[in-house]
Amino acid sequence: ATFLLSGLLNAGYLFSIVVRAFFAPSDKFTKFGEASPLMVVPLALTALFSLLLGIFPDQFPYLYQLAARVAGNVLSGGGL
C-alpha cells in the first residue's frame, strides 16, 4: 500500500514534467515562476508521510517490524 501510494504521488508529480519536456513547444516555457499547487501537493504529502513515519514508526500497524525484518534478511544475505 505504501509503495502504491508513493508511486501514485510520484506519477502525479512527474507527469506534468514529462508533458512539458516532450510534448510542449520549446519556446512556450522561457520563463519559470512558482510551482503550481498540483506540483507542490504530492511533494508535501510525501514529505509529511516520510516525517510521520520517521517520528512515529510504530503508529502504523507492523510497518516498523516489517522494515526491520526485511533489513535483517537483506543485510544478512538472506534476501539476495
Integer-rounded radius of gyration: 18 Å
Terminal-residue CA separation: 23 Å
Structural class: mainly alpha
Helix count?
A: 3
User: What count of domains describes the coordinates?
Assistant: 1
Number of strand elements: 0
Question: What order do the SSEs take from the amino end to the carboxyl end, as H and E?
Answer: HHH
The major sheet is characterized as: none
Mean pLDDT: 84
Keywords: Membrane, Transmembrane, Transmembrane helix
Protein name: NADH:quinone oxidoreductase/Mrp antiporter membrane subunit domain-containing protein
Task: Please explain how this structure is put together.
- The chain is mostly helical.
- It has one domain.
- It is built from three helices and no strands.
- It has helices at residues 2-22, 37-55, 63-75.
- Helix 1 (2-22) packs antiparallel against helix 2 (37-55).
- The longest helix has 21 residues, at 2-22.
- The radius of gyration is 18 Å and the shape is elongated.
- It comes from marine sediment metagenome.
- The chain crosses the membrane at residues 6-23, 35-56.
- Keywords: Membrane, Transmembrane, Transmembrane helix.
- This is NADH:quinone oxidoreductase/Mrp antiporter membrane subunit domain-containing protein.
